[in-house]
Specification:
The complex is a heterotrimer of chains A (261), B (787) and C (158). Chain A is α+β, with helices and mostly antiparallel strands and 261 residues long. Chain A is 31% helix and 23% strand. With 158 residues, chain C is an alpha+beta fold. In chain C, strands 2-1-5-3-4 form a 5-stranded mixed beta sheet, sandwiched between helices. Chain C is elongated and about 55 Å long. Classes of the chains: A alpha+beta (261), B alpha+beta (787), C alpha+beta (158).
């Protein structure tokens, strides 16, 4: 790793002040950033850890809305987000137990790895990302592989999930990294269905509108018959062709639906 | 009734205590006063002309002690190759130089160009980034067949081509084999790839060089399976240090699997630099660095043809392999596709005519050498796959086809130059049929089908040649080393024993099982026997641990040395009891005179040896310490039968291993618990190869699978529990313990079982066009095959 | 350099670290607790797993400063007070759940964390929980049996 200073503020105000330094970068749970630093893929002059700020950690349920603090680790969501079982299950399937004890929802969303799980839940749920300066709808947040709407100095404070009537995430594990080779998050709301696909597209997580339309018309696995993703623009690498990934996205979506009916 | 001590007992491992409490002492746990840290600058391109290296900026970086390039390694020789193969025309293989640091050219991604030595590891790494190699890129040589084209770019300009050797075995069989295949009732042909693997012992390599200016002695601490071999190769060929001025220590080593046999550049560099700088120099490999600097394994492209008569009797076998050597010849690389591969092509079967052709090829990739099984997995995979394919083509049950061709009479001389001393292949197959419940398969298949899954059953046999030796034979085959093993047994005055062995334990539990052997022979508590290994300063010259040889060869040396101890102790006991030595019996740690009630305890005799007041000094020397070198007169031939059941998800192509059963004949078993564990681990590595693992280079020679993010290691939830049985035992006929070796069996026998099972599942599921899928059988490959 | 203080295996410790100093480096290099290992640089292998405030954490993927004030347990703190093997360690020995020993500290720490969360896990739960701990020697078979045994559940003889 290149040398840097590490700040560990305990208040949001102090964190935001520290992040004003040149080349400062926020540090969530570090489960992606620290390996990247080891590979010398990033050279921040200052890292500002958000993990020690009590206000950023926790889970709240108010009516039909579940709010999760940005620095809440995956293990806590897995164990305490029972009000949104599909989300809890998704969090419980990220990485491995030790990673889940450190990795955070805010860190995952800010990184927007094209194969990460949380972006599918956020986009599939139509969640709202609350930052220190604004609220961003999930549909406006993800801007392609490793790119988000976050601006310099803007950090995620919490994420607000509308709890759907039913939801399910189905993930096909990448054989090496255990990220999603393909993952489908299906959420059913009164009058609408949202389907978010991760792991598949070169543009990162996306909503599969054809599947949403078919499932909105009739919510059943066979409603997806004849609905498929084109391989164009899908990730192709040593672990699978673009056609395979497109196909897997369909299988995962159908299985998610099957688990919900 | 299982035994509770000695040979045959599942004694708990004594080494576990230190490993379980964090007190193991691995090389990276060692820090010497004043040590500096090395970081290697490695080529980021696969092939290029190295026109210069600008180290000026790096030298000025904080903490930098010195930056080395090839010109700074005055007097340092290249890394030697320990095996010379003769090609089918009688010519020696082409053997390029292998410099410690690149000179003239870089030949693979990861090829070391320079080394920064600095006060801290991070300072060394900071400065390594500032080293500027001037490289003119050349087109990389990556395709094995393309590398042999007339106009192919050459990896080594000084060689006439990229062909290391064109080996034919047995060359005199060639025409007869061709004829038999041309006229046979049935010929089954299979083209396959045995993919490149990366060994990935969990402990990355580490080297620490140290130099004592007072004595002029050098010491290397290294993660090695064979410290004596490293001392010999590095001392004699690379650094010119005589053995008596060089000590190599391999302390606790976190797994090897072959990758820690070889002598690596980093070891030579740290030893050299410690002397040059006058302070210890430590290098700790990062995992991502190990992917491009540890020798890789396998990487064969093969065509195999099996000729059968109408009854399914094997008539002839012909195989043609292109074997990837990588950019340089690693220490034992040439032996792997030849003598460890061609000699095993008969398998468990009576095939009268066999011809093996291997073309070893240089490419711009990491060097390839022995990895768990080394050549034998490649032989077993192609043979057992082609037999399965033949069975399907001819409509013969795959087990029956194998049984029809089993070798049943021993000794059996194969047409590929080895002689199996003993075995019983029907017995292991019978046991397999019993344990694996083949009768219940159809019901299990129907259950899977009800869940939308395709179930399949794969069976295969394997044989391997272990205990690699004898020296006179391997010498004829091109080995530039002897392959004996040595042991010194030192009995202390108060009766405890220290056994110093040239074998090295890096997970195999020698400290426990070797003690069991010695304690059993004398009739003592195992805790009275201490096993010392891993340090050239206090062990006799031995060749180390690989090829499942430790108990068969190293254990035999211990037996021979202990026999000498017992013989001498009997003479002392005879003197003490005023009897004839031939009348002395040793039982349960006490000497008695046959037919009398006279006896003396073990401790009385050992004390007399060191306090020789009442002692036959005119006949024997005082003391009780003996050394034996054991050079076997043949390989050992473990064999077995494996079965695998899988479920394939037809929608995703994902293969789930439902069960895995292994029946092995390892001859005599010293510690059944340890043997089970060795087989479990071998199976996991074999299934890792069959399902998950693959080193992949892109068209530029960049390693795409360069970390655990892309190189799929088998994890706990990828595998089932295994059923292993080694109740079938035909003891080896030519070593004193009757042992055969068990370390590699699982890795050799399991890949074909899995692939056979998947092909079976797909065929039963209506995908009859699928006759083979290359490993690893990843979901995407299986899915693609079904399209 | 920054001063950090924490409790490691019940003992208060402190030391000077850089921002980039990983917790595993602090344990191994500053405190000399070399039982915790480093087997990869991508947070996959799990040989470095320790407990931070009672939770399993990969000590190669947390900075030493982030553990300031924390309660740390490493493999060196897992034996019984009299130095004898604790039940989990004993089960690893009894069931031959280790070979080369390199992954073992991380495996034991993960196993302890699992049993704290789930005192009687199934085989499938054990395998899932260990998915972040690589072992190249055992094929996991005997590790799973050891953990089943440590949890007080019956383990079939082999």
């Amino acid at each position: 790793m290149y040398s840097f200073d590490l700040d560990r503020p305990v208040t949001l105000e102090a964190a935001l002040a520290a992040l004003k330094a040149e080349d400062a970068q926020p540090l969530g749970g570090g489960q992606t950033l620290i390996p990247a630093l080891k590979q010398r893929l990033a050279a921040p002059s200052r890292l500002v850890s958000l993990a020690a700020i009590p206000d950023l950690c926790g889970i709240d349920l108010e009516g039909e809305t579940l709010t999760i603090g940005a620095a809440t680790p995956h293990a806590m969501v897995a164990g305490q987000a029972g009000a949104y079982p599909a989300l809890a299950a998704l969090a419980g399937g990220i990485g491995d137990p030790a990673v889940r004890n450190r990795g955070t929802i805010g860190g995952s969303l800010a990184n927007n790895d094209p194969s990460a799980c949380y972006p599918a839940a956020v986009l599939g749920s139509g969640a709202v990302i609350c930052t220190n300066i604004r609220e961003i709808a999930a549909d406006d947040f993800f801007e392609g592989m490793f790119a988000t709407a976050l601006e310099d100095g803007e950090i995620i404070i919490r994420v607000r999930f509308p709890v759907p009537q039913a939801a399910c995430y189905r993930k096909f594990d990448h054989p090496a990294s255990r990220f999603a080779l393909a993952g489908a998050f299906v959420a059913r709301f009164p009058g609408s269905v949202r389907v978010a696909i991760t792991g598949v597209s070169e543009e990162g997580v996306f909503r599969w509108s054809e599947a949403e339309a078919a499932l909105s018309a009739r919510f059943a696995p066979d409603a997806l018959e004849g609905v498929s993703l084109p391989p164009e623009g899908m990730i192709e690498d040593l672990h699978g062709s673009s056609a395979y990934r497109a196909h897997l996205a369909g299988v995962m979506t159908r299985r998610a639906v099957a688990a919900m009916v | 009734m299982p035994k509770d001590h000695g040979i045959g007992a599942s004694s708990k491992r004594r080494e576990d205590i230190r490993f379980l409490t964090g007190k193991g002492r691995y090389t990276d746990d060692i820090n010497l006063p004043g040590q500096a840290h090395a970081c290697f600058v490695r080529s980021q391109v696969a092939h290029g002309r190295l026109k210069g290296v600008d180290i000026s900026a790096a030298q000025k970086m904080p903490g930098v002690i010195r930056v080395f390039t090839a010109i700074d390694l005055e007097g340092v020789g290249g890394l030697p190759c320990g095996w010379q193969v003769t090609d089918r025309h009688g010519n020696p293989m082409q053997e390029p130089g292998h410099p410690v640091l690149a000179t003239g050219k870089v030949r693979h991604v990861g090829d070391p160009i320079a080394v920064v030595v600095a006060e801290t590891p991070e300072q060394a790494r900071d400065a390594a980034e500032a080293v500027q190699p001037d490289i003119e890129e050349l087109p990389p040589v990556l395709d094995l067949r393309g590398a042999l084209a007339e106009d192919a770019v050459k990896v080594h300009e000084e060689l006439s081509s990229n062909l290391c050797y064109d080996w034919g075995f047995v060359e005199n069989n060639r025409e007869d084999v061709d004829k038999a295949i041309a006229t046979a009732h049935h010929v089954t042909t299979l083209d396959l790839v045995n993919q490149r693997l990366i060994p990935n012992a969990m402990e990355p390599r580490v080297a620490i060089g140290d130099f004592n200016p007072a004595t002029g002695d050098s010491t290397l601490y290294t993660t090695s399976q064979n410290p004596h071999v490293i001392r010999l190769l590095m001392g004699a060929f690379v650094l010119g240090i005589p053995e008596h001025k060089l000590r190599v220590v391999a302390p606790d080593v976190g797994g090897g699997f072959g990758s820690k046999i070889f002598h690596y550049a980093e070891e030579a560099f740290c030893t050299f630099a410690a002397k040059a700088l006058g302070r210890p120099v430590k290098w700790t490999c990062q995992r991502s660095e190990s992917f491009m600097s540890d020798a890789h394994g396998r990487d064969h492209v093969t065509k195999i043809e099996l000729a059968l008569d109408k009854n399914g009797r094997f008539l002839a076998l012909r195989t043609q392999t292109h074997a990837n050597m990588g950019a340089y010849l690693s220490t034992f690389a040439p032996s792997v596709p030849t003598w460890l591969h061609g000699t095993l092509m008969a398998g468990n079967y009576r095939t009268p005519l066999i011809y093996v052709n291997v073309k070893a090829v240089f490419t711009n990739t990491v060097p390839v050498d022995a990895y768990r099984g080394a050549g034998r997995p490649e032989a077993t995979f192609q043979l057992e796959r082609v037999i399965d394919k033949a069975a399907r083509e001819m409509g013969i049950d795959p087990i029956e086809l194998r049984r029809r061709n089993f070798v049943t009479e021993f000794p059996y001389a194969t047409p590929v130059a080895v002689e199996y001393d003993t075995g019983d292949y029907h017995a292991t197959m019978d046991k397999l049929v019993e344990i694996a419940d083949f009768a219940g398969f159809e019901a299990r298949r129907a259950k899977s089908a009800a869940r939308g899954k395709l179930r399949g059953l794969g069976v295969n046999c394997y044989i391997e040649a272990c205990g690699i030796a004898p020296s006179h034979l391997v010498g004829q085959l091109g080995a530039r080393a002897g392959l004996y093993e040595a042991a010194t047994v030192r009995v202390n005055a108060t009766g405890g024993l220290v056994v110093m062995t040239g074998s090295h334990s890096h997970g195999q539990g020698h400290e426990t099982s070797f003690a069991q052997v010695v304690a059993d022979m004398i009739g003592l508590d195992e805790n009275m026997v201490e096993i010392v290994h891993g340090d050239t300063a206090n062990t006799p010259m031995g060749m180390g641990t690989y090829g499942s040889r430790s108990l068969a060869v190293g254990g035999s040396a211990i037996v021979r040395a202990t026999e000498k101890i017992i013989a001498k102790a009997k003479k002392i006991a005879a003197h003490l009891m005023e009897a004839a030595p031939e009348d002395i019996e040793l039982k349960n740690g006490a000497f008695s005179v046959a037919g009398t009630d006279k006896s003396v305890a073990w401790g009385d005799v050992t004390l007399a040896a060191y306090v020789p007041h009442n002692y036959p000094l005119e006949e024997i020397e005082p003391g009780l310490e003996e050394t034996a070198f054991y050079d076997p007169n043949n390989f050992t031939f473990p064999a077995g039968a494996y079965a695998c059941e899988v479920e394939v998800d037809p929608e995703t192509g994902k293969v789930e291993v439902c069960s895995f059963v292994a029946t092995d004949d390892f001859g005599t078993i010293v510690n059944p618990m340890i043997v089970d564990g060795q087989v479990h681990g071998g199976i996991a590595q074999g299934l890792g190869q069959a399902l998950l693992e693959r080193a992949v280079y892109d068209e530029y020679g960049q390693l795409l699978s360069g970390s655990y993010m892309d190189y799929a290691m088998p994890r706990a939830d990828d595998l089932p529990s295994f059923t292993v049985d080694h109740s079938c035992q035909t003891p080896c006929t030519h070593n004193p313990l009757g042992v055969k070796g068990c370390g590699e069996a699982g890795a050799i026998g399991s890949p074909p079982a899995l692939v056979n099972a998947v092909v079976d599942a797909l065929n039963r599921g209506g995908y009859e066009h699928i006759t083979h899928i290359d490993m690893p059988l990843t979901p995407s490959r299986v899915w693609a095959a079904m399209r | 350099m920054t001063e950090v203080s924490m409790t490691v295996n019940g003992k208060a410790v402190s030391g000077q670290v850089e921002g980039r100093t990983l917790l595993v480096q602090f344990l191994r290099e500053t405190l000399g607790l070399t039982g915790t290992h480093v087997g990869c640089d991508t947070s996959q292998c799990g040989t470095c797993v320790i407990h931070v405030n009672g939770k399993a954490v990969k000590s190669c993927t947390i900075f030493a400063q982030e553990a300031d004030g924390a309660q740390i347990t490493t493999i060196e703190g897992m034996a019984n007070p009299d130095g004898s093997l604790s039940p989990i360690q004993k089960a690893f020995q009894d069931y031959h759940g280790l070979q080369c020993g390199f992954c073992t500290p991380g495996m034991v720490m993960s196993a302890a964390a699992l049993l704290a969360e789930n005192p009687t896990p199934t085989e499938a739960e054990i395998r899932a929980y260990l998915s972040g701990n690589l072992c190249r020697c055992t094929g996991y078979h005997n590790i799973v049996r050891a953990i089943l045994a440590a949890s007080g559940q019956g383990v079939a003889a082999e």
